[in-house]
Amino acid sequence: MTFFQTYQTELIASLFIILFLFIVRAIARKLIYKLGKKTGINDARIHLISRYSTVTLILIALLIETFIFGAQLKDLALVFSSVFAVIGIALFAIWSILSNITSGVIMFFSFPYKVGDKIQIHDKDFPIEGIIEDIRAFQLHLRLDNGDLVTYPNNLMLQKAVTLIKKDAIDEGSDAI
Predict the structure, then answer these.
(1) Are 121 and 152 in contact (CB under 8 A)?
(2) What b-and-e string marks burial along 102-134, b requiring 16 or more CB atoms within 10 Å of the CB?
(3) Which SS3 state, helix, strand or coil, does residue 125 take?
(4) What is the per-residue pLDDT across 18-49, written as a single tens digit (0 to 9) for each?
């Protein structure tokens, strides 16, 4: 027997799973795009969050495929425990990077400020007041009144008190420069 005859049922189920996840991906991308446009988020951040959702769906598809092709839960538990032990050690070393990425995703959905707003970050040691120039996966770019560019980690943006000084201040700031 050939490979296709042997695994015919599994291949058909896989085809349906892949088709279903493509539909879910298209719906998720459309919802993320609509939410991003509705809240005034720039296209680069919308694309980044869309990419995160695509990677998550691919990982879910791979997990489902292992069960379709006959993997047992105890086999996967052994593999995952070994992989997570190695990943856990590696992730502990780069926890701040993951914290910034997670904060970037949270900021996409619930950050009250957008590009162009003038904000003040209430940091006891180093207070900052500037215009948000860009919001990236790891950090926020703030343009100070003196023209300096400050990158501020996303995870600190969620930990510090922030005051909105002026909405859409980038128009006035660019006239003065």
Answers:
(1) yes
(2) ebbbebbeebebbbbbbbebeeeeeebebbbbe
(3) coil
(4) 999 999 999 999 999 998 888 888 888 888 88
* Main-chain dihedrals φ then ψ at residue 5, nearest 5 degrees: -70, -40
For the chain, what is the mean pLDDT?
A: 84
Q: 157, 114 in Cβ contact below 8 A?
A: no
pLDDT in tens, 44-92: 888 888 988 999 999 888 888 888 887 777 777 777 788 777 777 776 6
C-alpha to C-alpha distance for 156 and 146, rounded to whole angstroms? 23
Question: Among candidates 111, 161, 160, which has minimal Cα distance to 134?
Answer: 111
CB 135 within 8 A of CB 45: yes
* Helix pair angle (95-110, 73-93), 10° resolution: 100
What's the rounded Cα separation, in Å, for the pair 118 and 101?
23
